[in-house]
């Protein structure tokens, strides 16, 4: 059984690294690094992995810079690199490919897509390394044979020695054919890898031709004959070869043709590699990609349903409730009922907005953001005023320090704050205080903290708290206001879209604090045009 590909992951976010681990562990062996310099040092001292997965934005050395250094090294110049990025502009993609990245995946990513892309890169890398090994074996076999008229004994001895050494060094079926006599000599690989008993193997080319698949035979035989009769020194072909048990193996057969001074073929040395498992892996990759595309199509249909069939009726309900609230002769009971309708409609509207954001994020497009110059302190202050109205019986304390000016999407920042404060309210006692801190830092970024003194988050839940459909411990008094478990996932998606990070600390003594860190300038472009309609309607 083939060993799973070895993948090195560079990501400083524990939550992101855990998401990558959960996506790739079923099919890969993982080693995780949090620092680019440490990864490069490991590359210098240890055998290289099959694939590097690099987060673009990192403190210190970025993933893009690590990619450039990897491409400059002779031993790592061809090592496959996949970049994880929130950047969706065409210019950013061009920059990534120019730096040497082989592929990229937008964050937040879909696990199946990341798995398919990484396994495809690993498969191609293993094939490339196998080709290098075959080339080394070929050179061992052919070296010295082009020198004209060497002593016959020495030539025969060198040829036999190199042939046997190559047969031991490779897991392929290595063969040698003399076009002048027609004799074919096979190594034990034909027995070990294709299941033929030594007594059934014949030393003629006709025996090999008989075991080619009928649909491939004419093409393969004609191609080899043409290569030998021309001045070519190389031949390679893919075809189906019958195993000893009658089943068919997909093989890659490649050889080197040695010629004398007159250009006549005097020796053909090749290696036949069974790539059936590789083809099955490729078929599985294509199946996974088809599944991803089918899921994306379904989610796009879901966006249409939610956008038109649910959001519009809710708008009508909200409008009607607003009109009823203005009725001058409504009694106290009627006013309470109207307020209940308004709160329920607002909550349903927020759930639909979360579902829309979730669907966009899972499609790999990232959430649309519209950054513009704003003051974080002003946006937080206004958002807290609205939240205080929604939670009139709870205390919210706020603190503002430093320079809060930067380029962010104010609506999305308010959405992050609303989700975090709502989460803090839901998972803390009614008589406790929720604290919000907005702080501008001298290092160039800003920090937003939301703290509550509720029960600590369990360790098993903490590692996946930012995953979709995950909720904290449910309390009986919260059942009427239970969320669908997308709030923190959307918080992380919005923060990542701004090039920032979010993490959580939670202990029995200190309570729970969510910390958002944002650069002062969002490193992404505006959202695509087709997203603007959704935002305007929301």
TrEMBL record:
GO MF annotations, alphabetized: phosphorelay sensor kinase activity
Known EC number: 2.7.13.3
Domain Response regulatory positions: 6-122
Residue ranges of every copy of the PAS domain listed in the record: 159-231
Catalysis: reaction(s): ATP + protein L-histidine = ADP + protein N-phospho-L-histidine
Residues annotated as domain PAC: 235-287
Record's keyword terms, sorted: Phosphoprotein
Residues with PTM 4-aspartylphosphate: 55
Domain Histidine kinase stretches: 305-522
Residues that span the membrane, as ranges: none
InterPro entries documented for this protein: CheY-like_superfamily, HATPase_C_sf, HATPase_dom, His_kinase_dom, HisK_dim/P_dom, HisK_dim/P_sf, PAS, PAS-assoc_C
One Pfam assignment: HATPase_c
Protein name: histidine kinase
Origin organism lineage: Bacteria, Pseudomonadati, Myxococcota, Myxococcia, Myxococcales
């Amino acid at each position: 059984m083939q060993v799973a590909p070895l993948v090195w992951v560079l990501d400083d976010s524990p939550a992101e690294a855990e998401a990558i681990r959960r996506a790739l562990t079923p099919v890969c062996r993982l080693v995780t690094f949090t620092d680019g310099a440490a990864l490069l040092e490991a590359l210098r001292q240890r055998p290289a992995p099959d694939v590097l997965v690099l987060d673009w934005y990192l403190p210190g050395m970025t993933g893009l810079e690590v990619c450039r250094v990897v491409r400059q090294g002779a031993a790592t110049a061809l090592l496959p690199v996949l970049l994880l990025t929130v950047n969706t502009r065409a210019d950013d993609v061009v920059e990534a490919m120019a730096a040497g990245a082989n592929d990229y995946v937008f964050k937040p990513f879909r696990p199946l897509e990341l798995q398919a892309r990484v396994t495809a890169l690993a498969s191609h890398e293993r094939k490339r390394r196998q080709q290098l090994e075959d080339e080394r074996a070929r050179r061992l076999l052919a070296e010295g044979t082009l020198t004209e008229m060497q002593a016959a004994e020495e030539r025969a001895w060198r040829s036999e020695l190199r042939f046997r050494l190559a047969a031991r060094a490779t897991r392929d079926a290595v063969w040698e054919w003399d076009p002048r006599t027609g004799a074919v000599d096979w190594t034990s690989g034909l027995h070990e890898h294709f299941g033929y008993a030594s007594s059934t193997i014949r030393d003629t080319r006709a025996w090999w031709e008989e075991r080619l698949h009928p649909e491939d035979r004419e093409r393969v035989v004609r191609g080899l004959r043409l290569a030998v009769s021309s001045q070519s020194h190389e031949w390679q072909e893919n075809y189906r070869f019958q195993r000893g048990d009658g089943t068919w193996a997909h093989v890659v057969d490649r050889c080197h043709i040695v010629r004398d001074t007159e250009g006549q073929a005097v020796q053909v040395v090749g290696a036949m590699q069974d790539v059936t498992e590789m083809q099955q892996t490729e078929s599985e990759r294509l199946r996974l990609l088809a599944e991803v595309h089918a899921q994306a199509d379904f989610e796009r249909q879901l966006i249409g349903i939610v956008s038109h069939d649910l959001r519009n009726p809710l708008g009508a309900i909200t409008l009607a409730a607003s009109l009823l609230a203005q009725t001058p002769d409504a009694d106290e009971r009627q006013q309470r009922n109207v307020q209940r309708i308004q709160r329920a409609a607002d909550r349903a509207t927020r759930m639909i907005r979360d579902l829309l954001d979730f669907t966009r994020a899972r499609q790999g497009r990232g959430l649309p953001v519209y950054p513009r110059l704003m003051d974080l302190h002003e946006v937080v202050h206004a958002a807290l005023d609205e939240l205080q109205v929604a939670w009139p019986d709870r205390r919210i304390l706020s603190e503002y320090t430093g320079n809060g000016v930067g380029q962010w999407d104010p609506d999305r920042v308010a959405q992050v704050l609303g989700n975090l404060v709502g989460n803090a309210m839901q998972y803390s006692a009614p008589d406790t205080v929720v604290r919000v801190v907005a702080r501008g830092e001298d290092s160039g970024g800003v920090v937003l903290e939301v703290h509550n003194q509720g029960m600590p988050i369990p360790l098993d839940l903490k590692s996946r708290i930012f995953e979709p459909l995950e909720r904290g411990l449910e309390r009986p008094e919260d059942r009427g206001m239970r969320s669908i478990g997308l709030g923190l996932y959307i918080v992380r998606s919005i923060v990542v879209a701004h090039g920032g990070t979010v993490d959580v600390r939670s202990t029995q003594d200190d309570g729970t604090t969510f910390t958002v860190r944002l650069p002062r300038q969002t490193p992404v472009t505006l959202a695509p045009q087709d997203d603007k309609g959704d935002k305007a309607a929301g």
